[in-house]
Amino acid sequence: MSTPDQTHPSDDEMTRDEKRHDQLTTAPEATEADAAPRIDVSEHDGNTRIDIRPDAAVRPGPGPGAETDEDGPSDTV
């Protein structure tokens, strides 16, 4: 009978952050940067606030060089 692999704890023994890190670094070419935090979550007066971290490598919205409509919506139909 073999013993369980102690280097990889079971899902029940891992914290949420450990599970996230494990999932984001298991791909063949993954790096530690892939598991870096991208958001900060805080609660104020019963409201949950989610902020994108300033150092996040991946951010929502159009990427650099993407065409945007800076003049707003067009009046033409």
Q: How is this structure best described in words?
A:
This protein has 77 residues and is an alpha+beta fold. It has a domain at 13-52. 12% of the residues lie in helices and 16% in strands. It has 1 helix and 2 strands. It has one helix at residues 16-24, and strands at residues 39-44, 47-52. Strands 1-2 form a two-stranded antiparallel sheet. A hairpin with a 2-residue loop joins strand 1 and strand 2. The longest helix is centred in the N-terminal third of the chain and has 9 residues, at 16-24. It is flat, with a radius of gyration of 20 Å. It starts with 15 loop residues before the first helix and ends in a 25-residue tail after the last strand. The model has no long low-confidence stretch (mean pLDDT 79).
Based on the model shown, name its key terms.
single chain; about 80 residues; alpha+beta; two-stranded antiparallel sheet; 1 helix; 2 strands; about 10% helix; about 15% strand; flat
Brief summary:
The protein is built from one helix and two strands. With 77 residues, the protein is α+β, with helices and mostly antiparallel strands. It has a domain at 13-52.
Give the spatial strand order of the biggest sheet. 1-2
Low-confidence residue ranges: none
- Spell out the helices and strands N to C: HEE
Q: Helical residue percent?
A: 10-25%
Name the shape in a single word: flat
Secondary-structure-derived class: alpha+beta
Q: Which percent range describes the beta-strand content?
A: 15-25%
Largest sheet: 2 strands, antiparallel
Integer-rounded radius of gyration = 20 Å
Ends apart, CA distance between termini: 73 Å
Helices, by number, come to 1
Average pLDDT, all residues: 79
**How many beta-strand runs?**
2
